[in-house]
Amino acid sequence: MSLNPLLSNASLRAASFIVTIYGDVVEPRGGAIWIGNLIETCAEVGISETLVRTAVSRLVAAGQLTGEREGRRSYYRLTEAAQTDFAAAARLLFGPAEQPLWRFVYLGGPAFEADARALEQAGYTRLGAHLSIGVRPLPQLSEGAVAFTAEVAGANSGLKELAAEYWDLPNYAKAYREFLQRFGKFSDALAGGEKLSAIEHLAARLLLVHQYRMIVLHDPRLPAAALPDDWPHAEVRHLFAELYVRLSQKADDFIAQRFLTVDGPLPAQTNATRHRIDELLAIM
Question: Which residues contact 243 (CB under 8 A, 6 or more apart)?
């Protein structure tokens, strides 16, 4: 079975895909993995060795990875700051749904534009030059920011109008439906008996996580009362959980057989990886 249907129009960037590898493979297992593993895995999705090496250098410069050598081999591990960020992203991808809490955030001081960008990346939207609104946990903001929690008064009848005016919901819905189309066909092919090699199980799972991550990390995750009745996220989340679990045994076996750290091979499973599977099984 070819991975081409998953790669068609995927527009993979090397650095972003390597971040997915570290989030899916390395963060729950720890350790510094050999760059050869990154090269081999990225080759499965059409990313060249040159692009991998360039991307790793940029991730080191950005403070997300740190390198070390053992003999002639180069290994790279997540920095402490990156581990914190990756663990937070993992809770979002694999953990239970967050309880939404409406917040108004006033942005003051000289860093208010940087704060506004950080809030936009966290799913907030601007009501004015200095005022934003959203429901997701707050990112790190400057001392000039002031946040207020809010409760919805009345029967929530105006929430859909508020959301439709200030968030680009059709764009998120389009991304979710494209995910359903792409990975739904792939799931049907697997259910119909199509076969994958061990490394293709891992590559397919990484593509699954990568595409899901690119949508979910930017989704404002508004409460159901603010969303259209046909909002596709629940269907997408169920498909993500079903495919991730189906692909994981052979993907994890491949990791244990091929992925090397300074201290030896990565384990197939850890408490953290088993917890992820348990969380996803609860969704199915």
Answer: 183, 186, 187, 190, 204, 205, 208
